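Recap quiz, item 2
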Amino acid sequence: MSILITVPPNTQSASLFYRVRNRGSLLVSAFAFCVVAASTVLGVRAISDPSPWLHLRIGQFLLDGGRFGYPDPWAPFATRPYVLTEWFPAVIGYLTYDRFGSPGIAWLRCAGILILLTAVLWTTRRASGTTAAIVAAFIAVLGAYDGLAERPQMLSLILVAITLGAWWRTTEDLRPRWWLVPLTWVWASSHGLWLVGIGIGVIVGLGLACDRRISGHQLRRLLLVPSASLLAVGLTPIGPKLLLAPFTVGSNARDFVGEWQSPDIRLPATIITLLMISFVVIVWARSARTPRWWQIGLLVTSLICALAMARTVAIAAVLAAPLMAQEVQNLLATPVTRPSRRAQISWLGLTAAALLVAVPFAGAVAQRPEGVPLRLAAQLQEIPNGTVVIATGDVTGWLLWSAPNLKPVEDLRIEIYDPAYVRQFIETMAAGPAWRGFVNDSGATVALLKDDSPLATALQERAHWRATGSDAGYLLLRQP
Amino acid sequence: MTPAATTKRESARVPTLVSIACAVAVMYLGIRPVSDNDAWWHLKVGEYLLHGGAFIGPDPWNPFATRPFVLNQWLPEITAFQGYEWFGLPAVAWLRCVAILFLFTAILWCTRHVADTVPALIIALAALMGTAGGLGERPQLVSFIMLAVWVGASWRTAEDLRPRWWLIPLTWVWANSHGLWLTGIGIGIVVVLGLWMDRRVTARAAARLMVVPILSLGVCALTPMGPRLLLAPFEVSQIATEFVQEWQPTPVRTSVVAILTLIMIAGAAAGWIRGGDKTPWWKLGLAIASVVSTLAMVRTIPVGAIIAAPLAASALQSLRHTTPQPPGRRSKRLWALLVITCAVIAVPVTAVVAQKPGGVPDRLQKTLDAAPAGSVVLNDDSLSGWLLWSEPQLVSVFDLRSEIFSRDYVEAFRRTTQVRPGWRDFLAETKPTYALLRSESPLRLALQEELHWVPLQTAQGFTVLRTP
């Protein structure tokens, strides 16, 4: 809802009005500066996620002319071909790493967070004034924090925000945004969450129809955007099988991967996201206004994302942001103006400055990755080519990257393995009854395991494997 | 309810038939063998107290316990034990069935106040389903009944602004029955604060209403456990939140009962949002309490379901566009008669189905009986209550009352069950000579493969082992 500013007619009042407005605008600028600075600080840190190593390896493999198929080039026990859903950011990531090393990846993550902040702001600013928009956008970034790792899903979050902003604009002028179709093509080449963007389109379209804002004919025209986007997904280099990829990955990941499980609602990011959603529900319930169906649809989607899986909490935060901004604005009851060109340029300038500042900052703090046994890399590389390694799932991405001579029994690409095999692997890691058979059958002669893991204990105490090195909480074990 | 709402008399036949169907379904839900892992140690506590045991003190059974055991659930424990002593296990199963019937009645007391018979019964049944994860033969059933009474009473207070003083002695009984008494007091505070924020009461009137939860808190210090009881919930949670499954955050995606409860709350919220009226703060407070309870811990999903019940019933009633018709004396009598009839029918049925316990390896009992008195048993924690009850001559290294152990000890036990580094040290410290473990567990395998323990018997998924 936008309220037009009216300037008081007499000169004295006008002067007071402009003085107050200038002081307010100074405060808003200072606040924007703090938010960008905080987001930069959040973004610049050492690589600590287990996944980027896998993506770097994929990027390197593709640029070297490698292609995935069956049998898998790296995993001897895979039973399904790997569908390369994230090739675009993998290539970009590798090219950056190749040129700038680990700090390059840390900088990319920082850039991703700042672009996400800007994309969310592009959406929230449409629904509210500057202050409410920045507050909601920053809270959304905090809510999405657990998903802001150096991984392709960052791109998905940015594209969720852009798609949401586009559809928000469609609810105002009822015009389809056809550019969402090629954008979805890029999205589908970057990460598997492209389905969320299509879902947003369908929800908003149907919501507008429920609100009787559009006729059946207009609804069909609007729904052409998500339909054409779906078609575009089938036209990536992966082909139509990409359409089924989210379901094939999900069928395995739902059972075995932590981030596909229900979120821990005691985590700060989850709490922040649920508070955003609760805030909107409470304001709606306390208001005499009846919210539109399309907004209710978005809020319900946000709630489902917040509760369904740990990995979708970040999406929930982005979806809730404009709704929250709108309700904050309603509570403030202050006039809303469209952002001026100067304000837009100022914001972009501030973001660009932050990205520049992040360059030396990343160079200083992100030289050394965390959570991976770097000191064991030399030993691992000396092991004969093709040796089978039994490794903790989280370290397999780094293993594939730093010791491509080795063949892990299982790796982060869980969807390429048979579920029964994954269950056996998990039981083996817990030193359950099948562990000895699994280790023998795999032919593994080397293990890279957490030093306090049940399997490391069993291999040393019961199979007399010997430890030849340790670093970052990992033990390198060799068969006697 | 809008002023345009009209009052319509319900046809008597449909509500009567639905009432009978609900009562029978609830009874059916309650009749099954005793199968809750905790039931056994509660029986043991009941026996201990009836034989002169103290309410607080060093743990009488486990030599590895380093913290005192506070017997804050003594009332249902001695009741269950007395029932067991007179009639055996079927009595415990029957008590559970009756408690579930009472719980349903208490929820119905909440929902029927805001909705006609059929919607009230439907939502009460949904709420009971939401509590399904907590309907074992444990004292927490008393908590759920008491909570429903607190919710119903607080709702009535929100309408007539009169304090319900009888909640104070009721909370005293609750504090002697289970540790969730704090939730009832919390509901009282939420409703009074909400009324004050809604400007329905002055600060002075709010203070008068607040006397009920405050005095309820006060009487909790007057139980046989003394003022220490006030701290008991926090003492238990210190260890339990870290190590006990039911104290972990709710996995919403895989928990049907949590989803059901959230749907109830969402239904209420949808009614408020699309209704166009300003929702009072006290109702929003209850909804927030319900959501937080549902998501916070697996064990508090039932709390969320019970609080959500009148909110959802009210929303369902609003779809009828009529004011709810207060229940007549006849319908109240009919319901009381139904509950009594179901409780009576449950007597012979439980006698048939609940003679033998469920979920415990009772076929291993002879092997365990043969172990010398005082033998230390490395046990699966889920069986510790049963072991304590059925093999009192043996000493478990760990049991379900995790609050009586030190954090380090619990962590060492957990690492041992996972056969992680340090597991041999735990064995050296506790010196077990027997083990009762799941046959498929890594620890059973490690004991046999590495320490050459001898398997004596395997049955019902568990194995008894002995040192070589």
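The radius of gyration of chain B is 24 Å.
Strands of chain B lie at 56-57, 69-70, 376-379, 395-396, 434-438, 454-459, 462-466.
End of item.
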